[in-house]
Amino acid sequence: MSLNPVTHPLLHKAGVRHGFFTREGGVSEGIYAGLNAGVGSKDDPARVAENRRRVAEWMGGAADDLCGCYQVHSAVARVAESGWGGERPEGDAVVAGVKGPVLTVLTADCAPVLFADAEAGVIGAAHAGWKGALGGIIHSTVKAMTALGAEPSRMVAVVGPCIAQGSYEVGADYQERFAHHDPGSERFFRPGAAEDKRQFDLPGFVLWRLEQAGVGEAAWTGDDTRADERRFYSNRRAFLAAEPDFGRLISAITLS
Fold it and tell me: Does the keyword S-adenosyl-L-methionine apply (predicted)?
């Protein structure tokens, strides 16, 4: 089976090679069946390595060209000047202004965000869960790209497959935390199944963060990771099914 990543017109227009990869086209088995790219998962490391090699090849590079952080739900953005050869510095975003590095993020319900400023030749990739999105990872990515010569108003950004509002129930305390930190964010919550529950619109909140950061144009692919088991891995779905672990999706971008 060939790889069949989700792509988006905004990034095609920017002239960058990119993909929000699904489970399709991988060699992992069992609960990881498909294209599990998670080096932190308990999957067979050889299978994960082969999956990552396939992604790198689809992106026009080699496995050593992949640049992805050891993700910690932070607001730290790193700069890649060449491939990282398997190194994974702590952080939750990577930016580049040169050809060669393939910027990546891993997700399994959190939002992957791919950025490009075609005129400046600067790209970025961010991992935005609720904690990172609230804590400033979007603004950090934009700031790091700007330092390389990008202009926020020229940037395009696409939020990839992630958990959608109808699939994402959280405690009411989340709404209070968001409202305290960022007034106006209450609109991204709606009542849940119980009085003390809410449903959180993660992609909507990330799009709002992109707007706040001055990004010229942004969109969400519209894919719900928890709802589509055939195409996507999901932390929430695995937890509810009492599975011991889960695969990780990889999203990637590189300058052509």
Answer: no
What's the CATH fold of domain 9-164+201-255? CNF1/YfiH-like putative cysteine hydrolases (3.60.140)
User: Please, what is the average pLDDT of the chain?
Assistant: 97
For residues 180 and 196, what is the distance between their CA atoms, to the nearest angstrom? 18
Mean pLDDT calculated for residue range 212-241:
98
Structure token digits, residue 124: 């970025």
Structural domain boundaries in the chain: 9-164+201-255
Own/partner pairs, 203-209, CB within 8 angstroms, 24+ separation: 203/111, 203/159, 203/162, 203/164, 203/165, 204/165, 205/130, 205/133, 205/134, 205/178, 206/111, 206/113, 206/128, 206/133, 206/138, 206/159, 206/162, 207/159, 209/128, 209/133, 209/138, 209/139
Residue 1, pLDDT score: 65
* Largest Cα span, the chain: 51
CA dist 209 and 176 (Å) reads 18
Distance, in Å, from the CA atom of 38 to the CA atom of 42, rounded to the nearest integer, reads 9
**50 by DSSP, 3-state: which?**
helix
Q: How far apart are the first and last CA of the chain?
A: 25
Output the pTM of the full model. 0.97
Question: What local confidence, expressed as pLDDT, does residue 51 receive?
Answer: 98
